[in-house]
């Protein structure tokens, strides 16, 4: 499969609007515009210089007329050699200039469009994003900027160069013999028809195959992003099958395409020889019939014929060069039009509106007056006549079920939207009249899912306050209870947090996000579930910090949205919303007193029961003290010094083990390098008989060019003799050679095309299967991140694909052509042949470079742009958070900084490309002149035969030219070698944990005998990427069969690690984990995981139906069982109201009114089950996704239930119902519950409090509640 810049995902057609060519440079500086002018002038001069050597061909060829004296031949050849050197030097210089200047112009243009584009996108109002999917915007920016960059670089330069060469070539031809020039013009439509057919075939061919490959890539990316869910539910084989289905479709469509494309390639190779044969035959008629050349006032000579023909060949070559470049420039102009629509768009809500009122400070009083608002994508009002007063310096909480309007109020308060009716007042001033950047600089915002960029903690804090000092940052971290995080990290504030903050735990990310809000010194603080990811201890500390913000001089107006009522109980005012209206208002006590049986009192009923229990416990101090005595402390008390020594010893042992694993991997890679990849690839190239056909065809094709040269010279010298009959026979022979070339190319391309399709499928299948087998720790390593792996599955496989038998075919074609040409040259004139050995390699290189001109010199900068593209993706995906900063210019500055290195590298490559291209032009001129001069020397001084000299020169030159042409289809061996190492190291590297292992020695986990007893014995564990930090230290814990265990502790204390070790995502470094008394290493892992059900804090859903997601771990999709599971997880209500809102992939289904879960229409429910969940479950709200994930675990009827913050995303009503359901399904099962909400774990048989990787305390809830 052929990937190039056309495979860019930009689906423009001829009717797509475009800008003028020079309009693409509207953001260019004066310096860049000067570069552009100099580049255009240089390209024009290069285009004029290219055909100039044709002027000397006529005299050069005529000098070898047998009737010409040897001295005249020698003198003419020496003179022409000097002329060609002069032209070559001039051409070298101007060729270098035009590629260098245009290269620098394009690099700058691509950079400035990326910056301008991001700058504009981040200034757009939020409603604009409803019609512009943020998930695809970063990719769109990158693709459009790349298309503009390509269009303003060498592609544009080549058009100026080509059209000048077209005019110059035609002028040279017509001024040297206009009559024959008209004859050659009549032949070229045949060439253009073949070229058009080839372009049409290449454009048409891979579209269906690309769709299939994209489908498989999407499935792979989705599965790899959810690898822990895939492995936990034992769906590696199913994912492999899903991945292979589109691969087989791609293979079949690819093979069908190769039957047509091979014909196009064959015709493309053959048509050149055919036109040559026809031109020479008609030229012979001009010579033999004595047709007068009016320009020279004599009859046409063989030199005239060749010169005119070569001049027209230059003109034709210029058109073939301009064609694909025109397409790229047109696409760039269309991309510029699309980009400018965004860049020049004036948003409805302008962040820097000059007419708006500038403010230095605000008091922070906010008032909503009869506000109505409806999202464009929804049918009902999100807010319906809302009036709320958020008092200065007070804490106001917003409470209500999902979809009641809480988050909408926040979005209007941030002025992400303007109300349809009513107004939002800040200190009595309509928010629409206030400068938005000034206002947002006074507002701190922290959302439920904290957004951190893949930068240092320091850089993330700068988004809150670009002028913050390190002391300001440390103080903000202290307020957010994040100071310990900074102290623990070796790099402190300069620690890179990873993609999406992935190097930090959920609670740590949340606290850094809180610190970023605090550092703004805000007058208004908005907390949208801001403490949801914190454990109780940290939540209390952060809540205390939030409560203290209103004290002293700060006097901050705080708006809190929370599902945990403990978070808002002490708010100054609580506003209860339902269906977009305010239904209750007051403080906690007032709401319970004035709205008995209301929405709020219903929400707090269960919480009050817990509070009463706590009150009773607190009131009985003796009983409490007695309980404390009974607390079971399992950690053996040691002196700190001895335990620290043990930690140090274990670290040294673990480091040694890790080093051994690294050495094994290095040895594996060394073995792969040593063995090479060619023999390994042969195993994938089947059927083998196609290899033989392809190689024989390659050898035949290699010899066609030297044979063609023989006919060419024979025809030329027959012209000198004016023997028309002999010329006709030679022309017929040339035509037969043309047919042979066409046939050989067809079978060569067809054979290797079929082999490549078979190989692509097989390697991708084996590679993907090997990836799915890897253990979770393997994916934690930076070199195995999902982006790298999906790239390996596509681009690395493609690079390797062409380097096997197809690479061998190129080698065979090249070397047979060269050896055949050299042998023939030695036979015709051995002195010329030996002399040519010194210069022919240069000619081959120049031929390769000339071919490269048609496809492009400057390599893709995707590798260098990776960092910039990641920033684009992060910034746009989290556009609301960026907008809330009010400092989006920081991101554009960082993007500009990240683009400086690609800009510098691109400029260097441009200079290098210009130098090399100029050198190739110089070589082609000089080598030809030098060989003819050497021929003249041997004729004059050694009595060499003129015709034999000509034959030796041309068989070698055409063989070299053919070798250069062959390289355009040859793969990059260096790139292939790197890809081979990467691919085969993944395939060959054994997984530390392999769920597919099916040895008879492994124990099968059987439903009948499996009781669910779990034992941790002296377990030590650290994550692969955090070698300096032990998560579990000498950890021991026994969980009895059917026991319900609650795990609590600070973020990073090891709670989720315990769950992941039970699932055997990782292996402990030391110690044992036993289930049913058997070491989990001795279980058949797939059967073991079948006994477990997992629900994670961040639910992972696939872009498929709800039914598919619920039944993901099952062998079949059973609707009745799915309905039963959805009922248990409290999901039947919202599923029954799901509709497949096409194109609305990021809008959650609204849940204004409650639904009786027991009286749901079955048909509506079945229809809802068939509805797609969207990308990453984007059509569902967080709570809805969580309930589907719970149903997925429930349907398995697991013996061990693992709930990692399973109810964290639910509101209080849903949480209560789901908790009740979970209580039922936990009966009779071993259950491990991780939770920050105490209501989730209060009924557990035992609660284990973790601290620093060890058990701090354990016991029943009442026994240890004071420590929670």
Automatic annotation (TrEMBL):
Keyword Repressor recorded: no
UniProt keyword annotations, A-Z: ATP-binding, Coiled coil, Glycoprotein, Membrane, Nucleotide-binding, Repeat, Transmembrane, Transmembrane helix, Transport
GO MF, one example: ATP binding
Coiled-coil region: 640-667
UniProt-listed InterPro entries: AAA+_ATPase (IPR003593), ABC1_TM_dom (IPR011527), ABC1_TM_sf (IPR036640), ABC_transporter-like_ATP-bd (IPR003439), ABC_transporter-like_CS (IPR017871), P-loop_NTPase (IPR027417), Type_1_exporter (IPR039421)
Start and end residues of each stretch annotated as Disordered: 610-638
Residue spans of biased composition, Basic residues class: 627-636
Cell compartment(s), UniProt: Membrane
Residue ranges with Acidic residues bias: 610-623
Gene3D superfamilies listed in its UniProt record: ABC transporter type 1, transmembrane domain, P-loop containing nucleotide triphosphate hydrolases
GO cellular component, one term: mitochondrial inner membrane
GO BP terms, alphabetized: oligopeptide export from mitochondrion
Residue span(s) of domain ABC transmembrane type-1: 37-331, 692-975
Protein name: ABC transporter B family member 1
Organism field: Euplotes crassus
